[in-house]
Structures are given as C-alpha cells and as structure tokens.
Amino acid sequence: MLDLAFVRSNLELVEKKLRDRGQDPAALLGNFRELDQTRRERITESEKLQAERNRLSTQVGQLKKSGQDASAVMEETKALKERMDDLAAAAAESEEQLRAILMRIPNLPADDVPVGKSEHDNAEVKRWGDVPNFDFPARPHWEIGEALGILDFERAAKISGARFVVYWAAGARLERALANFMLDVHTGDHGYTEVMPPVIVNSKSLFGTGQLPKFAEDLFRSADEEGYQPGVYRDNDHWLIPTAEVPVTNLYRDETLDDAALPTSLVAYTPCFRSEAGSYGKDVRGIIRQHQFQKVELVKFVRPEDSEAQHEKLTRDAETILELLGLPYRRMLLCSGDMGFASTKTYDLEVWLPGQQLYREISSCSNFGDFQARRASIRYRPKGQTKGAFLHTVNGSGLAIGRTWLAILENYQQADGTVKIPEALIPYMGGQTAISGPKVSGGKEK
C-alpha cells in the first residue's frame, strides 16, 4: 500500500506511474483529491474548535472562581464538543474512504523499469548457458514423462480433476531431490534460514502481501461459515496459499524488527495452490499450469537503503540453482505493464525448454519496497532511533520445483528415451545417474 502523504504530495507522479502500468488513474484514484482536502479541512476546523474550547474552559473556571454564572459558557463548550465529535467522525469516514482507494492502487514502478504494455516489452538483461543441440527430435516433457512411466495425468484427473498430476517412482524422487538440493544450497551457501510455515492462511495474511482483494478469484478458499467480503479481512478464515511468500512474509506482521536483525533471509519449501482463473486454454499440456505444485521460496526483510542490492542478490541466488543444474536461462526485466500488483521491480528467470523451443518463466524475483510492509504493518527500528519505520520486502522463487523438474526432462533427454540426471542431483538421487523406462508405467503393465 502506498503512503497517503506520498500520494498527496506527488499526485501527478502517481498518476504518471499508473499510466505507465497501463492503468487508468481516474478510475483508481477516484475522488482522492477531494476526499483528502475535505479530511484535512475537517481536521483543521476541529483543531480550531479545540483551541476555542480550551479558551472557554479556562473562562468557565474563572467565572466559577469569581462566583459568577458560567452556564452559558458551559453550554457553548458543550456545543463545541458536539461539533468536534461530528467533525472527527466525518474525518474518520474520509480516512476510511482514502484507505479504500489506497488499497486498490498497485505499487509504482521503479524509475529503471522499462515502460511497456505486455511481456513483449520486457527487456532481456542476461543469458546464460548453451541450449542443447540434439541430433534427434526433442520431445516435450509430457511425452517423455508418460513414456518413462513417471507422469500420470489420467489417474490424477480421476482422483482430483484437471490440472493435477501424479509423479511415480524416479519422477517422485526427482521432485524430492530438487527440493532438498535447493534448500541445501540456499541454507548452506546463501545464508538463508529455513522455515516451514502453515500452508493455510487467513485473509489478513493475503491482504498483507497484496493477493486480496484484487486476486480473490485466483485463490482456493475453504468453506468457512462466513463467506469472503472484499474489504473485510479476518484472522479466523482459511485459504490455501498461492505461494510461501504469503505465510513467510506474514511471520512478522504487526511486529518491529531490530536493525541488527536485517537483512533477514528466509527460505521455505511448500506446496502451492492456484485456481488459474482465466488461464483455461493456456498450457493445457504438461505440468506448466497446475492447481497444486511445489516451490522453494526466498523471502528477505531488508533496510530501505539495501533493498535494491538485496533484490539483485536474491535474484542471483535463484540463478545459481539453474547454473548448478546446467539449465540454460535468461533474465528478463519486466516492463511496467507486466509487473505484479505489489511489485516495484521484477526480474523473471526463464529456462530454455528444447521440447517446446521456447524460454519459460521458472522464477519471478521482486522488490516490493515498503508496499507489503505497510499493508502488513512490518517495521524495523533504525539504529540510534527510537521510532520504528517500515522496512522493505524482497522475494522470489528459488525455484519452482515442477518447472525445474520438467526443464531437466527436456534438457537432459537422450536419443534412447532415457533422461540423464544432472551431476549436482546424483547424490540426492541415491547415486542414480539416469531415468529409464520401468517395466510398469504408472502401475500399468506395458
């Protein structure tokens, strides 16, 4: 959420940044200027009335002390108090209306974010690795996985419906191996502290990180007694997390961290759940868009002056996983029109998929500035100061496990149908160096 004082003092800049995002400032800001002016006028008038009431209260005391009748002046002070109460209520109402406006305004793009409308305007920052040059037709992961008997879409659809998958045998172990490998690298080499949070959260948590109210249709909500109402955020309702960013960021909601504790870097491995609303017809083959998937998430709580450098470091930490696995990728700087709601700057890491002959997002690493911290009320106490200030949050996938899994199948496929195991994963696979077709495929005889 943006700072009210900042929006008030920089309204033209805010309008420009919203246009850069492809948003209509008039629709988002509404009557912000008039509401803010009215609120300030009411507060100013109330302060004047308070000064007059103080003067009259002194006069009442003097009249009583001298034995004179103070009833008329007392009636006047009573009327002033009633007027002040009305002004306070009106100012509070304006404050709530302003807050409702601020809640729907996305974060503003950083100055070095390219202005654009869609993914076609994103800027390539770097490219790493050589794409494999096979002497046979490269196959997509869904064909490889089904042929090896390690992917089962049919049974997943039977037990859960579309956009679910069952991993079998070496496929299941590869998923587990990737999670352990990523956690070991991030905790051992990159200095993150591992945390295992709940995967069911309340709406206050989803509001804090910016998923609510805008993205309610993309989430899975449990059938609580009270239904969800936009603008009402509770601590006793239940939603499945779309990413570990939500529970990990909210670990410090309504708290103040010590300056000495920053940066705080956390890593979590969790299942994630998304309804993929509006994506039907896209990526219907394979495991690109699933309702349930596993992910290793990186989250940082940092000082404002360090957030840019920490964003770069977190992105580099995620890139290291791809490099250790030998997966070709590119880093993209998202344009203003393609960024997430809460982000001020985002890098997407896109891995090369030879079976589909394209780069596909495998990690999104974002700097949120103090946007999430304001919504979730997360502060820190700067060194030498007694008053708290909002810190900055940074996060990203380190990495999405399912997409890393499929990238390995496509990049390490062999002409005989087997899949080599990247060298870094062999210890996590119990020494297994390749995945070959079993005698049974998903429990069915061939």
UniProtKB/TrEMBL annotation:
Coiled-coil region(s): 35-97
Domain of life: Bacteria
Free-text function comment from the UniProt entry: Catalyzes the attachment of serine to tRNA(Ser). Is also able to aminoacylate tRNA(Sec) with serine, to form the misacylated tRNA L-seryl-tRNA(Sec), which will be further converted into selenocysteinyl-tRNA(Sec).
PROSITE patterns (UniProt xref): AA_TRNA_LIGASE_II (PS50862)
Record text on subunit structure and interactions: Homodimer. The tRNA molecule binds across the dimer.
Entry's localization field: Cytoplasm
Homology family: Belongs to the class-II aminoacyl-tRNA synthetase family. Type-1 seryl-tRNA synthetase subfamily.
Keyword set, alphabetical order: Aminoacyl-tRNA synthetase, ATP-binding, Coiled coil, Cytoplasm, Ligase, Nucleotide-binding, Protein biosynthesis
Free-text domain note: Consists of two distinct domains, a catalytic core and a N-terminal extension that is involved in tRNA binding.
The protein's Enzyme Commission number: 6.1.1.11
UniProt GO cellular component terms: cytoplasm
Pathway: Aminoacyl-tRNA biosynthesis; selenocysteinyl-tRNA(Sec) biosynthesis; L-seryl-tRNA(Sec) from L-serine and tRNA(Sec): step 1/1
UniProt binding sites for L-serine: T243, A244, E245, R274, E297, N395, S397
One Pfam family recorded for the sequence: tRNA-synt_2b
Protein name: Serine--tRNA ligase
NCBIfam families, A to Z: serS
Name of the gene: serS
Substrates-to-products reaction catalysed: tRNA(Sec) + L-serine + ATP = L-seryl-tRNA(Sec) + AMP + diphosphate + H(+); tRNA(Ser) + L-serine + ATP = L-seryl-tRNA(Ser) + AMP + diphosphate + H(+)
Species whose genome carries this gene: Silvibacterium bohemicum
